[in-house]
Structures are given as C-alpha cells and as structure tokens.
Design a protein that fits this description.
668 residues; Rossmann fold; four-stranded mixed sheet; 28 helices; 11 strands
C-alpha cells in the first residue's frame, strides 16, 4: 500500500529527493565494479501492470496479443542494455491487509459502475482518466512473462518485502515499481515505473539519503516515520491525535503546503528529537491510543527490517517475524510432499492459487468489469463456483470419508458485503471410475494417468462425457470449448447469438497479428458484450485452477487469453451476430472456418442438451438490452448474505433460473 502522500510530498516539497537517471549508465558502472555479476533490476510487477497495459482498448475484456507484444518489447529494451529483470507478484493477501483489500474492492466497484454508466450513455469506452485494468490482468501477466523466458516469482508473503529483500541480497542495481514503501526499506535504489521512458531507458530514481537530509532524519528513522504516518500495520485513525500534537509544536508549518505535507514535516521533526532507542519507543507507545495491542509499533517497524537487519527501536533479542515458515501454519493439506510441490510451483509461478487453498484454505478474487445492473448474468464468482467446488474436492480429497474442510472465499460480486469469507463446501465431481487421489494425479506416469487427469479436469466442468471429441481438438480450442460449454450451461440468458460470437472469435483470431488487432476500429461499444468479455476471461482463470489441481492435463500456455480471446474482436463478432449477419460475414469470408464453426457449436449445444439446457435465439440488434429489471427489485438479491454455501450443484443452480424468462424463439 505504501505511505499515503509520501511520493506527492517528495515531488512538491523536496524534489531533490528524486532525479532522472540513465539505467544504461548505471548498468555499465555495475559491470565495471562487479564484472562477474550482470546488472539486475527486481520488478514489483503488481505496481507496474497498469503502466504496461497501453493498448487503446481496455474495457472489452483485454487486447491480449497487443499486451503480449508490449511486454516483449519491454523485456527487449532491458536485454539490449544487458540488464536482467526479475519479476515479483503478490502471491497472498496477508491477514493484516485484508481490511485495506476490502476497502479497495468497494472503491473499485464504484469505479466500475461509473464506467458502465458511461458506456451505456455514450456507447464508447471512457477516457484513460477512468481506466481500470482488464479483469485478471496481473494473473495473465505473470504467465505471459514466464512464457517470454523471464524469471517470475510469486510471493509467499507481501510482495514489497520480498522485492526489497531480493534487491538487497542480490546486489541489484535497483527496484522498479511505484510504491512509497521502497523509500523506507533500506535496500537498493528505487526507480519509478511511472516515469520510465522505455525508448531511452531513463527514469526517476528516489534517494532515501536525500529524503533523510530533507527531513533531518537518519535511515534508521524511516521505518518509524512510516509507522507514525500510518501504514499497513499502524492504521491512520489511531494517529490523528498524535499528528495534531506534532503540528502544534512543529516549526516547519507552511500554509502553502497541503495538510498531509505539514503532517509529514511535523512527525519527522518530532522523531528527530527522540533518542534512537528501544525505551524511546516504549514512551512513544504511551502517547498513542493503541488499545490492547501495544505491539503495533514494534510490528510496524519490524515489517521494514530485511533479513540480517536490526533496528535501535527493536530489542536485539526480538527476531524478524517477517520470515515465512510453513511449519508455523496449520495447513489444510496434511501431506507434506503434496504441500512442498505446491509451494515450489507457486513460487516459480507454475500453478495458480492451489498453494493458498492447500496451505491456508483461503482464496480471493478481485473485481471484474461486470455490470451490476444487468440482472440476466450472475456474478462470475457465482457462475464458476460449482466448478471451484469440484476443484476444491479434488485438492482436499473430499471423497475419502470424514468431514471435508470448507474453503474460505473472498470473492467480489454484487450483494456480497465482504464482512467475512464465505465458507464453501467442496463437492465431488462425477469422474468415470471415481476421482483419483492427488498423488496419482500429480506424480503417477503413463497413458492411463494422463487420461485420468483429462477426465477429472472435464468433470469439474460437467463435461466428462465429451472427452473423445475434445481430445481430437487443438489444446487451446478444446479448453475454449470446455469453458464456453460450461458458461452456456450455467447462464440461462446466454443466447445462440452469444455462442456464435464467442466461437467466431477463437476461429478468426488464429491468423491475426497484434498489429492487425490493434488496427480494428469499433463503431460502438456494447455494455453487455463488455460484461460477457470479463466473465469469459475470469473463466480462463478457473481453467488454470482446475489444470493446476488435476496435474496439468493441459500446458498452461494453452489456456492463455491471447490463444482464444480478444476484446475488440469479440465486440465486433457480438455486434455482427446480434444483427443477424450471414455466416460468411461473421467468419470474414473464410470458407475453411465453416466446418470448424459448425462442429464446435454442435459440441457445445449437445453438451447443453445433456444438461437439459436449450440454447435459444435472442437477437438484440444494435440496441442495448442490459436487463430491464434493476437488482433492487429482485427478491433474490434482498436475501440476507450467507456465510456458507453448502447445497449440491443442482440445487445451487436452480437459483439462476429465476432470471428473465426465455422468449419463445427458434432453437439450435
């Protein structure tokens, strides 16, 4: 999260703290001084994704091939300068950050509602001022960088700590990111991703030493400054009274500065007069309303101490509590071998989310670009929940008898107050011959096991009967069919026109370059297609989860969005399909796609028929039909939010059938 207002303070009050630097020159100096060690920059990827995503279109579900090309260019620019990059991604949301995570989710929900209102009013994407990253962008960025040959690390604790620790331990030339916490950690230099000019490899470098000089402090003071200004450990609400006292006695008050700038100067002035000792911190605690938790300040200061570092504010006999230990946790999975493999794959960014489930039994999903006013499409969190319940069952082996533990989910969707996690019951999938145990799925070898992996994966999406047909397809197309068939089964409002649009996308995407897709111009943007694009892309992360749990029947690279989806192309196909265009127009005059189109469609319709789901035609023309009922009039969303979700699959999904009744129309 960083320290609120600190970077703004630096820019306005003490601009000498940052200066433009040439990364090539810094790398060259490093090579002269350390000829045996190539220059390395450690990248806080989570704070970079919004700066990396520069395709013009961002609301339609993601311009994934364009984005992949941008990441490739980014890497090449550093490689040309002989600079190695190491990318770090947040692998967990720590308990201490949960309240802040929830607060941001509600903030994002409001931003997304404004975006949909704009699209419905103007039929186009809002300006960059309203930008939010496409759904699941950080997840797929991680796999994109890995596929481009980069060292990619998924963390076991807060990413900024691991980034700072890696930078210090490996003598990196700097950290690239956008988080003021890097001004506090005593580690390698901090470079700004926001100010980076990739063509010249120049950016702003922030100097901790210059910040200390401007504030009259030393480096050892910075962790205490961060805590007394409010951070992830010490909440700002406890500090208001303390700030007021500091402001009253501060000689630096300047009416031309913001209140926050004056608070920073006043708190720094106070700290500069406090002797650097453990007893001083003891005295300081008495000034703060810390309530029953008198350890907050110690924990706050300690959170900035990297391995091997000590602080005068902390007694020497207190060890650094930041080091992650698997043994300290009570894990959901008692099999040490399984847990160790999951942990190693997690760190190397090879699997998706399963280590969190096996270790802490907790998982989360942030906001998606979903229209909360569209009552016809359930939240993606609810659409994919039955599949997740089967995946949880595979991971936690719920069929073994005895009580199976519930999984805690923090998933954002309309009607979920996020006051507590929802407790989700694993549900056994219907695998022919029974669900294999995890050791078989993960470690056994041979064609029979490969078949078991594939059939278990399909069973998570209720497609175990379609194995032969799917195995005959290219892997990305098979995965696409699996997801789309599941989606059509779950969401009764999806029409034949929606199905046609999705199938046309994967077929027409195949021969298109990033440049061709970038050049595609949309006459208008449809809000329902925006919503469906986000739901589909979130579905791809559910495929990643199932693939990780079932022992990788697919290569992860075959489940990536750039293999099967493009936001603008989907908007175009959606509009064509709902206008009732010819097959020739929909498939861009490519006759060789006619047979695959009918075959894929036929498979999906057949899978739906088995589940007694008939896909009907509901053309929407060029009009924006986004659900005429508002959610507040819908009694289903007036129910008290429940903390557990236990009924089996067929009962859960009955709730989705209340949606607007299907009009009579032609059937597939």
């Amino acid at each position: 999260m960083g320290i609120k207002g600190l970077q703004g303070f630096v820019a306005t009050v003490c601009p000498d703290v940052c200066r433009m630097v040439d990364l090539r020159e810094i790398a060259e100096k490093h090579r002269i001084n350390h000829p045996d060690f190539p220059p390395v920059i450690v990248v806080d990827a989570m704070s970079c994704v919004r700066y990396w995503y520069t395709p013009e279109s961002w609301v339609c579900g993601g311009q994934w091939r364009e984005y992949l090309a941008i990441l490739e260019d980014f890497i090449k620019a550093f490689m040309a300068a002989g600079i190695k990059l190491v990318f770090y991604f947040d692998g967990v949301v720590e308990e201490k950050k949960r309240d802040e995570w929830i607060k941001r989710r509600f903030q994002n929900t409001k931003e997304i509602a404004r975006i949909f209102q704009f699209i419905k009013t103007h039929r186009k994407q809002p300006g960059r001022g309203m930008f939010v990253v496409p759904s699941a962008l950080p997840t797929f960025t991680r796999f994109a960088l890995k596929s481009l040959g980069q060292k990619t690390v998924c963390t076991l604790q807060e990413a900024d700590f691991e980034v700072a620790a890696y930078g210090l331990e490996h003598n990196c030339i700097g950290i690239l990111g956008q988080d003021s916490d890097y001004l506090i950690y005593n580690t390698c230099p901090y470079f700004s991703i926001e100010k980076l000019r990739l063509d010249r490899l120049v950016t702003l470098m922030y100097s901790r030493e210059h910040l200390c000089r401007a504030l009259g402090l030393s480096l050892t003071h910075l962790p205490l400054l961060a805590c007394l200004l409010g951070n992830d450990v010490v909440p700002e609400r406890l500090l208001e009274g303390f700030w007021h006292k500091c402001l009253v006695t501060s000689p630096h008050k300047n009416n031309s500065y913001s209140r926050r700038a004056n608070v920073i100067l006043a708190v720094a002035n106070y700290i500069s007069k406090v002797p650097c000792s453990y007893s001083s911190l003891k005295h300081l605690k008495e000034m703060l309303p810390l309530g029953s938790d008198m350890t907050l300040l110690y924990r706050g200061v300690q959170s900035y101490l990297l391995p091997g570092q000590q602080s005068p504010w902390i007694p020497p006999n207190v060890t650094n509590c930041q080091t992650f230990s698997l043994q300290e946790q009570t894990t959901m999975c008692q099999d040490k071998e399984i847990l160790q493999v999951a942990k190693e794959q997690h760190i190397r960014s090879e699997n998706y989310t399963i280590f969190n489930i096996l270790s802490s039994g907790e998982t989360e999903c942030s906001n998606s670009l979903e229209d909360e006013c569209d009552t016809e499409i359930p939240g993606q969190a609810l659409i994919y929940r039955p599949a997740r319940q089967h995946i949880y069952s595979v991971l936690l082996e719920s069929g073994k008898g005895g009580a199976c533990p519930l999984v805690k989910e923090w998933f954002v969707y309309f009607g979920n107050p996020l006051q507590q996690p929802e407790l989700i019951q694993p549900v056994q999938p219907s695998v022919p011959g029974g669900t294999p145990n995890l050791k078989t799925l993960w470690f056994a070898k041979g064609p029979d096991v490969e078949k078991q992996r594939y059939s278990t994966f399909l069973a998570c999406f209720h497609l175990q009967d379609g194995m032969e047909e799917l195995q005959a397809l290219e892997a990305p197309v098979a995965a696409f069919c699996c997801l789309l068939a599941y989606l059509m089964m779950q969401v009764s409002s999806l029409s034949l026109e929606d199905l046609n649009a999705f199938v046309a996308v994967i077929l027409c995407l195949k021969g298109k370059s990033a440049a061709q897709l970038a050049g595609l111009q949309l006459a208008q943007v449809d809000s329902r297609a925006v919503h469906l694009g986000a739901v589909f892309v979130r579905g791809l992360t559910t495929l990643l989860l199932a693939n990780s749990a079932c022992g990788f029947p697919f290569r992860m690279d075959d489940l990536m969005p750039w293999e099967m989806f493009d936001g603008k192309l989907f908007q175009e196909k959606y509009r064509q399909s709902h206008r009732g265009c010819s097959l020739e127009e929909l498939l861009e005059g490519n006759e060789s796609l006619y047979a695959p189109f009918h075959n894929l469609k036929s498979f999906i319709c057949k899978a739906c028929t088995v589940k007694k789901r008939t896909i009907q035609s509901r053309p929407r023309g060029d009009g924006f039909i986004t659900g005429t009922q508002q959610r507040e009039f819908n009694p289903r969303f007036q129910q008290t939010h429940r903390s557990s979700f236990v009924p089996p699959y067929h009962n859960q999904m009955r709730g989705f059938l209340w949606r607007n009744p299907q009009p009579q129309g032609k059937k597939h």
